[in-house]
Amino acid sequence: MPGFEVLYQAAALCLTYPDDGFRARLPLLREAAPPLREFTDHAARTPPGDLQAHYVEVFDFKNRHSLYLSWWSDGDTRRRGMSLVRFKELYRAHGLECTGEELPDFLPAVLEFTSRSGERGLLVEYRDALEQLRSRLTAYGTPYACVLDAVCATLPPATAGARR
Length: 164
Fold this sequence. Notes:
With 164 residues, the protein is mainly alpha-helical. Helices cover 65% and strands 0% of the residues. It contains ten helices and no strands. Helix 1 (4-14) packs antiparallel against helix 7 (107-117), helix 1 packs antiparallel against helix 10 (144-152) and helix 9 (127-140) packs antiparallel against helix 10 (144-152). The longest helix is centred in the middle third of the chain and has 16 residues, at 78-93. The chain is globular, with a radius of gyration of 15 Å. 32% of the residues are buried. InterPro entries: DMSO/NO3_reduct_chaperone, NO3_reductase_chaperone_NarJ, TorD-like_sf. This is Nitrate reductase molybdenum cofactor assembly chaperone. One of its GO terms (molecular function) is unfolded protein binding. Keywords: Nitrate assimilation.
């Protein structure tokens, strides 16, 4: 996975809520991760309030663009609880702890874990989910789609049976 660590960390930051800290990091993100420039350039020229409103519109109103990977395979079922435990156990096995308000399958958390650990297993395992999300973001017409394009380009192809 040489060279993808920076891309994964930058993608994680691009997929979190665009607060003031995000805005301050945009020049660094733009230079560190050229595959994300389409998104970082868009974010830089979009007024902060508009960017925040767009993030909420895209990711917070419906599960059609869910950033929670196990939601794509498990939905809101008991089985998802076991998947979340697995994420936490994998993080712990690599000396990392999932803290904060987000669930461990939150895509930015998975990308950060992958960046820090070098372990791409979760991204590969949830490749179909990433492809579904990428496809839906593209159809929605949001610049966030290019962040998923860049991440998906680093992974093996999705299986032929991926849902759209």
